[in-house]
Amino acid sequence: xxxxxxxxxxxxxxxxxxxxxxxxxxxxxxxxxxxxxxxxxxxxxxxxxxxxxxxxxxxxxxxxxxxxxxxxxxxxxxxxxxxxxxxxxxxxxxxxxxxxxxxxxxxxxxxxxxxxxxxxxxxxxxxxxxxxxxxxxxxxxxxxxxxxxxxxxxxxxxxxxxxxxxxxxxxxxxxxxxxxxxxxxxxxxxxxxxxxxxxxxxxxxxxxxxxxxxxxxxxxxxxxxxxxxxxxxxxxxxxxxxxxxxxxxxxxxxxxxxxxxxxxxx
Length: 266
Prior knowledge:
Layout: H1 8-28, H2 38-53, E1 56-57, E2 70-73, E3 76-78, E4 92-101, E5 104-113, H3 119-136, H4 145-158, E6 162-163, E7 169-171, E8 178-182, E9 199-202, E10 205-207, E11 213-215, E12 222-224, E13 230-232, E14 235-239, E15 244-246, H5 251-254, E16 257-258, E17 261-262
Antiparallel strand pairs: 1-4, 2-4, 3-12, 4-5, 6-10, 7-8, 9-14, 10-13, 11-12, 14-15, 16-17
Helix pairs in contact: 1-2, 3-4
């Protein structure tokens, strides 16, 4: 698949899709509390996307995925399928949202801390978010994909964590998954050179223990082999003429965006 350079019209559609995906994460925030099941979160998100936003939940029936969102709890790395098990105080959970609006995708995820979360969970989530932001800050025309991966990996490993290598960010637009692949590890100066008009996700998955994962028999759910906690944060990014634009930026993050530089929060 060739890399898609988006036209101004396509970029506007990507902005709309990204904004709507971000709004789903903002909407679901007060519902992520002890006692709620992940399938209830899926139901609330599905109804909001379909009935309020008039968008298509991209994960639903994508290659057989059975739900409208992904919910990955504690040692689940990604692609967790919402189900009847209820969240409890101390859990950390990633909610991953992808919407389709006018044929274009917006893809984003964030961590939620449920109730009273021990420092080991909150710290992992914070460092993963910081790693995402450091990766985003490498984005500009002429930068290399390896610059992004190196920034993420260096930050995670400097805090004693490991970076999952089996999954990566990806180009996005009319298709859910396009070229290029955005690895979350690597060396400065390696890989593809970025060009204005590219759109892709950066979505590091950081483990408390070793980086190795396994896929459960459902064919989707990826978990850490050592049962250590895992965290993930994700944004959809546009490469601009001078740097980057975060297409899925949430309102609570906008205060940290100054002159094209996304500062680390927390």
